[in-house]
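My hope is that you will study the protein record below before we discuss the fold together.
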Amino acid sequence: MTTDVPIAALARAAGLEPDWTDAGGVARRVADDALVALVDALGWPCGTAIQRVDSAAALADAKASPPRVVTGDAGRPLTLPATVAAPGARFRISLETGGHVDGRVGGTGEHGTLPPLAMPGYHALDIGEQRIGLAIAPPRALPFDAFAHAHDAGRRWGIAAQLYSLRRTGDDGAGDYTALARLAAQAARHGAQAVAISPTHAGYPALPAHDSPYSPSSRRWHNVAYLDCDAVPGAEAAHRASAGAADAALIDWPRVLPAKLRRLRACFDAWRASDDPSRDTYQRFRAAGGAALDAHARFDALQAFCIEHGIGADWRQWPAQWRMPGSAEVDAFAHAHADTIAFHTFLQWCASCALGDAQHAARGAGMATGLIADLAVGSDQAGSDAWAHGTTLLRGVSLGAPPDLFNAAGQAWGVTTWTPDALRADGFMPFIELLRAAFAHAGGIRIDHVLGFARMWIVPDGGSPRGGAYLRYPLDDLVRLVALEAARHRALAIGEDLGTVPAGLRERLGAQGVAGMRVLWFERDANGAFRPPSAWDRDAIAMTSTHDLPTVAGWWRGVDLGWRRVAAEADAAKRRDEAQPRDVAAPAPDDASAHDSDEIVQSMAFGHDTVPRADSNHATPPPPELLAAHAERAAERAALWHSLQHAGCAPAGAAVPPADMPPVNGILAYVASGPSPLALLPLEDLLALDAQPNLPGPPCGHPNWRQRLPRTIDALFDADVRARIAAVVQARRAGRHGP
């Protein structure tokens, strides 16, 4: 007789956590129906008792298989999984630099141990007939150890920039890699040691309106929308045509990107027809990219073809033979469209070179770190990565986050990543290759949502984020690989450890040399008071804000409160719409809800007061909840002002500045005065802008990922910005908390 397996037990075996604790410290339990959907999406059928028993047996068999790679730390004994070898077995370790280490497995009981290896790197372990990879991380160290003996240790600062937002004279209506190089050089002249940038992952050339840098088509390749058409090979022979949108406050991607691609294709055709010696360099790049680069180029060409012929952009809706990258039909398409595929590989080559040039400009201007690349948490489910990597990625679910203080509805981002089982089965090579691509043209990386190294909140497609659950990931393995690759590239690794942080995660990251992030808005005690900078973590980046949070000026003015209300109304409307019967066709969404309403943008996104003044003539008074939020913000402003005064960043005894006079200089100095060896300051705060780059949640009219800076790079560092930089530099030098 078949004995049933409880769904919660099967879920745990599959790596899910049926029980979890929310941001408020409240214990939660995932509903059984949600667990069924998630376990099934992970590839373990569980709809019947027989399926659950069979899946449990298959999971047990999978766990009994020896791993392809085992990770460890240099100078420490390495514990082997029981599936590898028992104590007493003979082994040989082949070091990647040559030489061998022979011996017998030590230890007692089920798990054997290997003696400490002094040399970090990728080695090979032979035991019996098995060969297992060893990835040995450098000796455990504190973050920023590379700064320890520098003359300016403890005083470094940098800029955080949204690449697309940058302006330069003669651009095509959006930020590009040339503007990034100029920003890095300019910032270095004013003392910045780093420029942290938004992701440069590959977007969709055929879908210009898909503009989120955190929902890329591929994380392995780069965004060709950021190319400067005048800086690629063949540009001198291509016609220069302005996109006509360079002065707009918002980027019009559906206009900018197609025009840019036409120019880039003309450059490519002219370059290919020439005898330019750079063609050899391109061929080497293409050969090095191999099948992975070719697959991405094929996807871009196929997607454009399918859109043009009315088949659709989503590969999951393509004809069956085109959903499989290795099919004969895809090969035939590639042969018939070889020129187009060569064009897309050319664009990737140009993007890689342009990023390298930007990092060279940063280092050449004197930056110690230079660019800090941003590694998004996942890639779009309809993108190149998902098409090319098949079942190694999560399908039928979206990555996201549970409800928290800033997002009461939770989040589902519509992106995917590798399954934990696929990472182990592939010896972590996809992750290693991604890290190498990110480090290739940067002095550091920022890992978005590094909480996912321990556990990832996954939500069934079409479901509410509240109906998700945590999926466990191999934290120790992932963190060691980051530490190893960072050391090999002599670069800094930063993890965005914000949100519902698992217990012990920050300590684990820090012990491996991965820096955390400390953001002003979250640095408060249990009573809501702002913690003094001297109490902030020493081994973390200090920041005023992030791309998903209010700017300093926007927070002080309360601009974010108005947007929060709009977002809440949009979420409520979405839920009402989902609850309504579908027997009548719904009207098309208004353009303002799907993209941006000019009226909303002008009144809210760019700093206009969102709450009528007491003496205003507005016919409709603001709702009570918005008035209450502004009253609470007034108290928070007072609390922050008193903290500024206590830290010496604001005049003692001075009254709290009014809402329309944000003390940006003092707040920047406050954050910079703490013990972190690196403070990163968003450009939006150096410019005292009100609008945050992104407002998480359902579309509500906020101009996410489209806002441009108000002036060009050459005019960026005016007297006001220089004064803010001076306040930051003085605070860094005056701080007595450096390492």
Remarks:
- Residues 583-618 have pLDDT under 50 and may be disordered.
- The CA atoms of residues 151 and 657 lie 37 Å apart.
- The first strand starts at residue 16 and ends at 17.
- The two ends are 65 Å apart (CA to CA).
